[in-house]
Amino acid sequence: MSTSVFIEYWQNIFSSPDPIEAMGLSAYGKELSQFQIDTAPEPYYGYLHEDIGNDVLLLLLNPGAKDERTRQKGWNDSVKDRYIRLWKKVEYDKKEEELKTTNRWRDKRLQQARGIIEGAEFLHTMEFFPFHSRKDELTEGFKRAWVNDFPLADLTFHALKDIAVNQKVKAIFSVSNDWTRLLDKHSIPLIKEVVLKKAWWQRLFVCIQIVPIQ
Q: From CA 203, how far away is CA 214, in angstroms rounded?
Protein backbone atom coordinates (compact mmCIF):
# COMPACT_ATOMS: atom_id res chain seq x y z
CA MET A 1 0.00 0.00 0.00
CA SER A 2 2.72 2.51 0.97
CA THR A 3 4.57 2.10 -2.32
CA SER A 4 1.38 2.76 -4.27
CA VAL A 5 0.69 5.87 -2.14
CA PHE A 6 4.24 7.11 -2.84
CA ILE A 7 3.81 6.54 -6.58
CA GLU A 8 0.39 8.21 -6.61
CA TYR A 9 1.79 11.21 -4.72
CA TRP A 10 4.42 11.85 -7.38
CA GLN A 11 1.96 11.17 -10.16
CA ASN A 12 -0.19 13.98 -8.74
CA ILE A 13 2.79 16.30 -8.27
CA PHE A 14 3.90 15.92 -11.87
CA SER A 15 0.31 16.48 -12.99
CA SER A 16 0.00 19.70 -10.99
CA PRO A 17 0.16 23.11 -12.72
CA ASP A 18 2.33 24.32 -9.79
CA PRO A 19 4.34 21.32 -8.50
CA ILE A 20 6.41 23.32 -5.98
CA GLU A 21 3.31 24.74 -4.34
CA ALA A 22 1.65 21.31 -4.42
CA MET A 23 4.59 19.90 -2.45
CA GLY A 24 4.21 22.55 0.26
CA LEU A 25 7.81 23.72 0.03
CA SER A 26 7.23 27.43 0.66
CA ALA A 27 8.68 27.17 4.18
CA TYR A 28 12.04 25.98 2.83
CA GLY A 29 12.80 28.96 0.59
CA LYS A 30 16.37 29.67 1.75
CA GLU A 31 17.55 26.06 1.74
CA LEU A 32 15.74 25.28 -1.49
CA SER A 33 18.01 27.79 -3.22
CA GLN A 34 20.62 25.00 -3.06
CA PHE A 35 18.41 23.00 -5.41
CA GLN A 36 17.56 23.50 -9.06
CA ILE A 37 13.84 23.37 -8.43
CA ASP A 38 13.15 24.67 -11.92
CA THR A 39 14.31 21.28 -13.18
CA ALA A 40 12.05 18.27 -12.72
CA PRO A 41 13.16 16.18 -9.71
CA GLU A 42 14.00 12.47 -9.74
CA PRO A 43 12.15 11.03 -6.72
CA TYR A 44 12.46 7.51 -8.10
CA TYR A 45 13.43 5.79 -11.32
CA GLY A 46 11.96 2.43 -12.21
CA TYR A 47 8.72 0.49 -12.51
CA LEU A 48 7.94 0.22 -8.79
CA HIS A 49 4.28 -0.44 -9.62
CA GLU A 50 5.18 -3.77 -11.31
CA ASP A 51 6.99 -6.94 -10.23
CA ILE A 52 10.50 -5.96 -9.10
CA GLY A 53 11.43 -9.25 -7.42
CA ASN A 54 14.51 -9.82 -9.58
CA ASP A 55 15.83 -6.29 -9.16
CA VAL A 56 17.79 -4.17 -6.67
CA LEU A 57 17.10 -0.72 -5.21
CA LEU A 58 19.80 1.92 -4.75
CA LEU A 59 19.10 4.86 -2.42
CA LEU A 60 20.79 8.10 -3.47
CA LEU A 61 21.09 11.63 -2.09
CA ASN A 62 19.99 13.77 -5.04
CA PRO A 63 20.03 13.56 -8.85
CA GLY A 64 22.92 15.96 -9.48
CA ALA A 65 22.98 18.93 -11.82
CA LYS A 66 21.69 17.36 -15.05
CA ASP A 67 18.96 15.07 -16.19
CA GLU A 68 21.09 12.79 -18.35
CA ARG A 69 18.02 10.86 -19.48
CA THR A 70 16.46 13.74 -21.40
CA ARG A 71 19.06 16.55 -21.42
CA GLN A 72 16.05 18.88 -21.17
CA LYS A 73 15.47 21.72 -18.75
CA GLY A 74 12.44 22.55 -16.66
CA TRP A 75 9.59 20.26 -15.73
CA ASN A 76 9.75 18.88 -19.24
CA ASP A 77 7.21 16.64 -20.92
CA SER A 78 9.62 13.70 -21.22
CA VAL A 79 10.05 13.41 -17.45
CA LYS A 80 6.41 14.22 -16.71
CA ASP A 81 5.30 11.41 -19.01
CA ARG A 82 7.39 8.90 -17.07
CA TYR A 83 5.60 9.67 -13.80
CA ILE A 84 2.11 10.59 -14.98
CA ARG A 85 1.67 7.68 -17.36
CA LEU A 86 3.74 5.30 -15.18
CA TRP A 87 6.22 3.80 -17.59
CA LYS A 88 6.18 0.04 -17.83
CA LYS A 89 9.20 -2.24 -17.52
CA VAL A 90 9.58 -2.51 -21.29
CA GLU A 91 9.86 1.28 -21.57
CA TYR A 92 12.50 1.50 -18.84
CA ASP A 93 14.44 -1.36 -20.44
CA LYS A 94 14.40 0.48 -23.76
CA LYS A 95 15.64 3.67 -22.09
CA GLU A 96 18.43 1.75 -20.32
CA GLU A 97 19.70 0.49 -23.67
CA GLU A 98 19.65 4.03 -25.06
CA LEU A 99 21.57 5.34 -22.04
CA LYS A 100 24.39 2.85 -22.61
CA THR A 101 25.44 4.94 -25.62
CA THR A 102 25.27 8.32 -23.86
CA ASN A 103 25.75 7.82 -20.12
CA ARG A 104 26.71 4.47 -18.60
CA TRP A 105 26.34 5.55 -14.96
CA ARG A 106 23.30 3.39 -14.30
CA ASP A 107 24.73 0.40 -16.15
CA LYS A 108 27.98 0.61 -14.16
CA ARG A 109 26.08 0.72 -10.86
CA LEU A 110 24.02 -2.28 -11.93
CA GLN A 111 27.16 -4.25 -12.77
CA GLN A 112 28.59 -3.39 -9.35
CA ALA A 113 25.39 -4.51 -7.65
CA ARG A 114 25.59 -7.80 -9.55
CA GLY A 115 28.97 -8.35 -7.95
CA ILE A 116 27.11 -8.58 -4.63
CA ILE A 117 23.65 -9.81 -5.66
CA GLU A 118 23.89 -12.38 -8.42
CA GLY A 119 21.18 -12.20 -11.05
CA ALA A 120 20.03 -8.63 -10.40
CA GLU A 121 18.14 -7.59 -13.51
CA PHE A 122 17.37 -3.87 -13.06
CA LEU A 123 18.64 -1.03 -10.89
CA HIS A 124 15.84 1.04 -9.36
CA THR A 125 16.79 4.26 -7.60
CA MET A 126 15.14 6.52 -5.01
CA GLU A 127 16.42 10.02 -4.25
CA PHE A 128 16.36 11.31 -0.67
CA PHE A 129 16.29 14.96 -1.82
CA PRO A 130 14.59 14.56 -5.19
CA PHE A 131 15.70 17.91 -6.64
CA HIS A 132 18.76 18.38 -8.85
CA SER A 133 21.69 20.27 -7.32
CA ARG A 134 25.29 21.01 -8.20
CA LYS A 135 26.59 19.79 -4.85
CA ASP A 136 25.42 19.06 -1.33
CA GLU A 137 25.64 22.26 0.72
CA LEU A 138 22.56 21.70 2.84
CA THR A 139 22.84 22.54 6.52
CA GLU A 140 22.56 19.86 9.17
CA GLY A 141 19.54 21.70 10.54
CA PHE A 142 17.75 21.50 7.20
CA LYS A 143 18.46 17.79 6.89
CA ARG A 144 17.18 17.10 10.39
CA ALA A 145 14.05 19.12 9.65
CA TRP A 146 13.54 17.26 6.38
CA VAL A 147 13.80 13.90 8.13
CA ASN A 148 11.79 14.81 11.23
CA ASP A 149 9.21 17.29 10.03
CA PHE A 150 8.59 17.20 6.30
CA PRO A 151 5.81 14.74 5.29
CA LEU A 152 7.59 13.71 2.08
CA ALA A 153 10.42 12.07 4.05
CA ASP A 154 7.88 10.02 6.00
CA LEU A 155 6.05 9.06 2.82
CA THR A 156 9.33 7.97 1.25
CA PHE A 157 10.31 5.94 4.31
CA HIS A 158 7.05 4.00 4.34
CA ALA A 159 7.41 3.23 0.63
CA LEU A 160 10.90 1.90 1.40
CA LYS A 161 9.53 -0.07 4.35
CA ASP A 162 6.88 -1.64 2.11
CA ILE A 163 9.53 -2.70 -0.39
CA ALA A 164 11.75 -4.15 2.35
CA VAL A 165 9.10 -5.90 4.45
CA ASN A 166 7.50 -7.56 1.47
CA GLN A 167 10.91 -8.37 -0.06
CA LYS A 168 9.93 -6.82 -3.34
CA VAL A 169 13.58 -6.55 -4.44
CA LYS A 170 16.62 -8.78 -3.99
CA ALA A 171 18.44 -6.12 -1.95
CA ILE A 172 18.39 -2.46 -0.96
CA PHE A 173 21.60 -0.40 -0.92
CA SER A 174 22.45 3.14 0.13
CA VAL A 175 25.38 5.44 -0.62
CA SER A 176 24.15 8.37 1.46
CA ASN A 177 24.47 9.14 5.16
CA ASP A 178 21.22 11.03 4.84
CA TRP A 179 19.34 7.78 4.26
CA THR A 180 20.96 6.27 7.34
CA ARG A 181 19.79 9.35 9.26
CA LEU A 182 16.23 8.55 8.18
CA LEU A 183 16.66 4.86 9.01
CA ASP A 184 18.10 5.72 12.43
CA LYS A 185 15.00 7.75 13.18
CA HIS A 186 12.97 4.56 12.76
CA SER A 187 15.57 2.33 14.51
CA ILE A 188 16.34 0.31 11.38
CA PRO A 189 19.55 -1.80 11.65
CA LEU A 190 22.05 -2.23 8.82
CA ILE A 191 23.58 -5.57 7.81
CA LYS A 192 27.01 -4.59 6.54
CA GLU A 193 29.10 -2.16 4.55
CA VAL A 194 30.74 -3.31 1.35
CA VAL A 195 33.10 -1.30 -0.84
CA LEU A 196 32.02 -1.51 -4.46
CA LYS A 197 34.81 0.55 -5.97
CA LYS A 198 37.14 3.50 -5.56
CA ALA A 199 35.96 6.53 -7.46
CA TRP A 200 38.32 8.55 -9.64
CA TRP A 201 38.90 11.03 -6.79
CA GLN A 202 39.83 8.09 -4.54
CA ARG A 203 36.89 8.40 -2.21
CA LEU A 204 35.12 5.17 -1.42
CA PHE A 205 31.83 4.41 -3.05
CA VAL A 206 30.12 2.51 -0.24
CA CYS A 207 26.91 0.55 -0.43
CA ILE A 208 25.00 -0.57 2.65
CA GLN A 209 22.67 -3.51 2.57
CA ILE A 210 19.58 -2.93 4.69
CA VAL A 211 17.88 -5.55 6.81
CA PRO A 212 14.28 -6.16 5.68
CA ILE A 213 12.25 -3.99 8.03
CA GLN A 214 10.00 -5.77 10.51
A: 33
Amino acid at 145: A
Cβ atoms 63, 132 nearer than 8 A: yes
Quote the crossing angle between the two packed helices 2-15 and 151-165, to the nearest 10°. 140
Domain boundaries, the chain: 2-210
The sign one gets for the Cα dihedral 3, 22, 130, 63 is positive
Query: What is the pTM for the complete model shown?
Result: 0.85
d(CA 199, CA 23): 34
User: For residues 193 and 203, what is the distance between their CA atoms, to the nearest angstrom?
Assistant: 15
Q: What is the pLDDT of residues 17-52, one digit of tens each?
A: 988 888 887 767 677 788 888 888 899 999 999 999
CA dihedral 83, 185, 175, 140 (to 10 degrees): 100
- pLDDT for the residue 175: 73
Distance CA 43, CA 132 (A): 10
CA separation for the pair 24, 19 (Å, rounded)? 9
Looking at the chain, how many residues does it have? 214
Report DSSP state, residue 197: E
For the beta sheet containing 56-60, the strands, ordered from the edge strand earlier in sequence to the opposite edge, are: 44-45, 123-127, 56-60, 171-174
